[in-house]
Design brief:
The complex is a heterotrimer. By secondary structure, chain A is of the alpha/beta class. Chain A has 11 helices and 10 strands. Chain A has one domain: 3-Layer(aba) Sandwich (Rossmann fold), CATH 3.40.50. In chain A, a hairpin with a 2-residue loop joins strand 1 and strand 2. Chain C is built from 8 helices and 10 strands. Chain C has a 6-stranded mixed sheet with strand order 6-7-8-3-9-10, with helices on both faces. A 4-stranded antiparallel sheet of chain C has the order 2-1-4-5, with helices on one face. The termini of chain C are far apart. The chains are: A alpha/beta, B mainly alpha, C alpha/beta. The interface between A and C is large, with 40 and 36 residues.
Chain lengths: 270, 274, 266
């Protein structure tokens, strides 16, 4: 299987008050269709920056170097318009705080339709049908009602589902999920992770899943890279990294999570 | 904070300018070559010379001396006005925003009433009613403007009232005065500073406008607005008479406005590392 | 030290009313009663909007309930009381919030944040406070050098430790932790929880640990209350009884815990 995304030597620097700071240093990884790459790291490790750099979401105050090949096309250095078309049709992003990602002044239906209008020329009736179908696929009951609501009337979990639905509308080849379960309650977190697992197997899309939570990554990712202070400390299959970590920081992360989970299993299996 | 301020060239320029003007007003008797009241009809409308650095006006008085002496009423009265307006605005805004409930409702309704009057006309009306006296000018300005600041300050106070740090201070038993003094005031300080400097500009213009209309400082007391008023009489024949007080007023108000912006940036602790 | 809450009810006037001057109210807490003894860690679990944060505020003395009362060692927190009782109650509870960035004054240095708590103690002088502050920082695992830093110069974990230090500073009996670790990274969460356990062992605090994460509950607490729509849905008096819960919401939460494969499958 060919890699759908190949990243090599990716470096991101930002100029801050006469000093240059490195946010991502020499990052290298690849993703295959139907597989999920997990990026594990804590705040400030550079995990989100990496994906923002690849999709061209950083403004001119950032310097991005290295290469990112998406289906053979070079993403870094691509002109803005071509990149915009790829972003939205072939690469879709699911972001962290769903409440902030929607315009509070417009109804959900209108915002969902905007995605279609930006990338296709379908008539309005068909667009609406597709929106309803998307919501149904995300197991949202009463999709017509939800389309009529404003973002603040829906819970965080519901909004995140809509966001995932939106990301899937264009049937992208690569889905990048940036901490999608962080700002949500436990029950919805669980169902969203299950949802994403199904999407992976059903759609055959490639996925990148960014998180600081080892448990979530262990559930959904096939390969994982661990980032700390802008660099990769460890990479490999989830099995390898979790069971035989060679890097000290990775061992530390695993140890901390294990301590909490061990206690939990101890109580629950009694 | 002062260090950060000193790095900002525009701020330093404005501060220097304002300081120079203030000192000029303070040491007017030492700096002015002539008495501002001394008139000599024979010398009227003289061009600038070594004896009269900015020339003379319609009564032969030295323009430069009048400008220097004129700093006193212009700046000092404006400062008094600004202090009064900000003082009352701050007190009422703080109380309304922090206490909420009925206190907030009552104060804000009074503010609504005050704001529904057209400000400029009210000032004129109050001065006309109470008589033309510089004290009444200040009272009129304060009376009209406090409501505007009360509302702006209240908005800022409300923003912080439910913050975690104020809740925590309450939870460990600190009194309202402590919370207002140690938390609320420093938080709204930067907004206050911008408002205060903007208000200085506004007050200067207002006092000058009233003097221009003959309702403020009375002749023969030198004041920049009053000088503009006298200059307008000879606008067509001697337009240069308007130049000096006009440009001076403009520069002073601009300096205060810019100063407000720079002070606000300097007071933000996030800018501390540079 | 015994904290007792009896029949607490809190409601807010609804933002959207049917009539012009309507008096409709939204019930947030509907007759909640509980007790906390010395040294206990009680978990309060529920989803957002269930009222658990509001209960935390009521129990720490910040919000007066419409009905019911809170009593510490028999002395009513919200009822009428004498000066002696007020003195007695003054430093009984501390609170740590979820959002550490907005719970400290951005203009205060770490030293000022801790001094604010210390100055409420009887007989504390500025000089004595200096050494107290260093001691507090050490207790929460921060170096002395942090004393002059501003909040925006600290990481999330460090800032939350400062918030814990200022709650501990007043030597309370009882600390409300309102989703105090929820906004932190996974490994930092564990470290802060270890710190809280350590402090509990050293000082004998009682904790009210408000959360929606059951793994944090099993790590930190020995009793659990499940909250659902303003009422207590289920009480678990011993943490070992957790697998035997019956309320459907509580069971759903239990089943939603995301496991750590492949290290601990099942």
């Amino acid at each position: 299987m060919n890699n759908i995304l190949e990243v090599g030597g990716l470096t991101v620097r930002v100029k801050e008050k006469r000093q240059s700071r490195t946010l991502v240093e020499n990052v290298m990884f690849s993703v295959r269709p139907g597989r999920c790459l997990g990026i594990l790291g804590e705040s400030g490790s550079g995990k989100s920056m990496t994906c923002k750099a690849i999709t061209g979401l950083l403004d001119s105050s950032f310097q991005v170097s290295g290469q990112a090949l998406f289906n053979g096309k070079k993403l870094i250095g691509m002109d803005a318009e071509t990149l915009r078309r790829i972003r939205g049709r072939e690469i879709c992003m699911i972001l962290q705080n769903p409440m902030n990602c929607f315009d509070p002044l417009h109804r959900m239906g209108k915002q969902m339709a905007e995605g279609f209008e930006a990338h296709t020329a379908l008539p309005r009736a068909e667009v609406r049908q597709k929106c309803v179908a998307t919501l149904e696929n995300m197991r949202i009951r009463n999709p017509e009602e939800v389309l009529m609501k404003y973002p603040h009337q829906l819970s965080g979990g519901m909004l995140q589902r809509v966001m995932i639905g939106l990301a899937l509308i264009m049937e992208p080849k690569l889905i990048i999920a940036d901490e999608p379960t962080t700002a949500i309650d436990s029950i919805t977190q669980y169902s969203i992770v299950e949802e994403l697992k199904m999407i992976k197997s059903r759609n055959g899309a490639a996925m990148i899943f960014i998180s600081h939570d080892l448990a979530v990554i262990s559930q959904i990712a096939d390969e994982v890279i661990v980032m700390r202070d802008a660099k990769i400390c460890q990479s490999g299959s989830v099995q390898d990294v979790m069971l035989h970590p060679t890097d000290e920081y990775t061992r530390f992360l695993i140890q901390k999570k294990k301590a909490v989970m061990q206690k939990f299993y101890q109580v629950v299996s009694a | 904070m002062l260090r950060r301020l000193s790095k900002n060239k525009m701020a330093m320029l404005c501060i220097a300018f304002v300081l120079v003007i203030m000192l000029g007003g303070l040491f007017a008797p030492l700096l002015a070559p002539h008495s501002p009241y001394e008139n000599n009809i024979l010398e009227k409308f003289r061009a600038p010379s070594s004896e009269y650095p900015l020339g003379t006006d319609n009564l032969g008085r030295c323009v430069f001396s009048r400008m220097i002496y004129g700093i006193r009423p212009t700046l000092f009265l404006s400062f008094l006005t600004m202090a009064g307006t900000m003082g009352i605005g701050l007190l009422t805004g703080l109380l309304a925003g922090y206490m909420k409930g009925p206190v907030d409702e009552v104060i804000m309704r009074i503010v609504d009433v005050m704001l529904s009057f057209p400000s400029q006309i009210m000032v004129l009306a109050v001065v006309a009613l109470m008589g033309v006296d510089i004290r009444n000018v200040i009272i009129a300005n304060v009376f009209i403007k406090w409501a505007w600041y009360a509302r702006m300050i209240r908005t800022n106070v409300v923003k912080y009232t439910d913050s975690g740090f104020i809740l925590f201070a309450k939870s460990i038993g600190h009194r309202t005065q402590y919370i207002l003094r140690h938390h609320m005031l420093p938080c709204i300080a930067s907004e206050l500073v911008v408002l205060a400097s903007l208000d200085m500009g506004w007050a200067i213009l207002n006092i000058s406008t009233l003097s221009f209309l003959g309702l403020g400082v009375q002749a023969p007391t030198p004041e920049w607005g009053a000088m503009l008023s006298e200059a307008k009489n000879v606008m067509t024949s001697r337009p240069e008479q308007m130049l000096v007080p006009g440009i001076a007023l403009m520069l002073l108000v601009a300096a205060f406005n810019m100063l407000g912006d720079c002070l606000r940036d300097a007071m933000d602790p996030k800018e501390a590392r540079s | 030290m015994r904290l007792e809450a009896r029949d607490i009810a809190v409601s807010f006037r609804r933002e959207r009313q049917q009539k012009l001057f309507g008096l409709e109210r939204q019930t947030v807490l509907d007759g909640v009663s509980l007790t906390i003894e010395k040294g206990e860690s009680l978990a309060l679990v529920g989803e957002s909007g269930s009222g658990k944060s509001t209960l935390g505020r009521v129990l720490s003395g910040l919000l007066k309930p419409e009905r019911g009362d809170v009593a510490i060692d028999g002395i009513s927190v919200y009822g009428r009381r004498g000066k002696q009782d007020t003195e007695f109650l003054r430093h009984k509870t501390g609170i740590v919030f979820q959002d550490y960035t907005s719970s400290v004054n951005p203009r205060f240095r770490v030293r000022d944040i801790l001094w604010e708590s210390l100055r409420t103690l009887d007989g504390m002088t500025k000089r004595a406070a200096e050494s107290e502050i260093c001691g507090l920082l050490k207790q929460v695992g921060l170096e002395e050098g942090y004393i002059n830093r501003y909040p925006h110069e600290l990481s999330g974990g460090q800032l939350q430790r400062v918030c814990i230090a200022r709650a501990v500073a007043i030597k309370p009996d009882f600390i409300v932790l309102d989703e105090a670790v929820s906004s932190l990274d996974a490994s930092t969460q564990t470290q802060v929880m270890d710190l809280l356990l350590d402090l509990r062992n050293k000082h004998g605090f009682s904790y009210l640990f408000i959360t929606h994460d059951l793994t944090a509950v099993t790590y930190m607490c020995n009793r659990v209350l499940f909250f659902y729509q303003g009422k207590i849905a289920e009480r678990v008096e011993r943490i070992e009884d957790l697998p035997r819960i019956r309320h459907p919401y509580a069971k759903q939460l239990l089943n939603s815990v995301i496991g750590l494969d492949p290290i601990m499958a099942g």
